[in-house]
Specification:
about 20% helix, four-stranded mixed β-sheet, two-stranded antiparallel sheet, 6 strands, alpha+beta
Amino acid sequence: MSASKPSVGDKLPRMRVRELLPNAHLGDWKPGPLNSITDVAGVLVHTQEILGDNGSVNTGVTSILPRSDWFCNACYAGIFSFNGSGEMTGSHWINETGLLHSPIVLTNSFAVGAAYQGIYEYAIKSQRSEGSPIDWFLLPVVAETFDGYLNDLTQFAVTPAHVVEGLENVTSDRVREGSVGGGAGMICRKCQT
């Protein structure tokens, strides 16, 4: 007996695009076993949401370590500017050298400073050694997301402690999908012209 074709209005179980559309062409390379950034050897990620009791805070932090010894063993990196509006600290160093010597943190527009400080706090605690320049030569990479429609940015909910916590808890597990981490308060919408 064959399964019947779902009709309009039938609720399908939540699934990934590759599961829903197995014949869709989504690039030339086969995805890794987790179909996640953590399929890249050594890359570790943590996502956390910061939600307020009254619904006004709906934000988060995504923390990415390119490798455990990221400060002394840089990764090759590059940047592509899609819209020229978003802020990404540390981008000048990446453009100049082609190297990434920092964790990457994604968070809301008003939390870039807190994330920058959090990376320094984490780096000094975890990477500093005798004679290490970690306390004076580090250009943290922080990219901002705008969640101002669903999050009250003026609450400054993200703190350096959230960033340190995220970097201390990175893992090679599949990264959760959806409105999580630095994208917790993001929306997709069509711009009206």
